[in-house]
Design brief:
The longest helix has 12 residues. Helix 2 links the parallel strand 2 and strand 3. The chain has a single domain, classed as 3-Layer(aba) Sandwich (Oxidized Rhodanese, domain 1). The chain is globular and about 40 Å long. It starts with a strand and ends in a 10-residue tail after the last helix. Helices cover 33% and strands 17% of the residues. By secondary structure, it is α/β, with parallel strands linked by helices.
């Protein structure tokens, strides 16, 4: 069984709309995050993750997000190697997340 699960952006949005507060980690670069971030997410660039992963709760679900899903998958794989078990990759990343929002609320991706 894989330690890495997947979550579609619409399912994350439904969870947020229901009042859940999952632990979301955005691994994009600074300039990408400047265009918008999922509410409540923390920002740790993928390149900084090896130095900062211990800031993340080990026994809590972590939802990783990037622009399209590739970097967040790498982040999940890295965290799995560090012993994290509740890892979720947001499929489609911020590109698909943006499509769920009203046009005037969409982050630039």
């Amino acid at each position: 069984m894989s330690l890495i699960q997947v979550l579609a952006p619409e399912n994350l949005k439904a969870r947020l709309d229901e009042g859940e507060t999952p632990f979301i980690v955005d691994v994009r670069e600074d300039d990408e995050v400047a265009g918008g971030i999922i509410p409540g997410a923390i920002h740790i660039r993928l390149g900084d993750l090896p130095a900062r992963f211990e800031e993340l709760p080990k026994n809590e679900e972590l939802i990783l997000v990037c622009r399209g899903g590739s970097r967040s998958l790498k982040a999940c794989e890295f965290l799995a190697d560090q012993g994290y078990k509740k890892l979720v990759n947001l499929t489609g990343g911020m590109r698909e997340w943006a499509d769920l929002l009203p046009e005037d609320e969409r982050p630039t991706v």
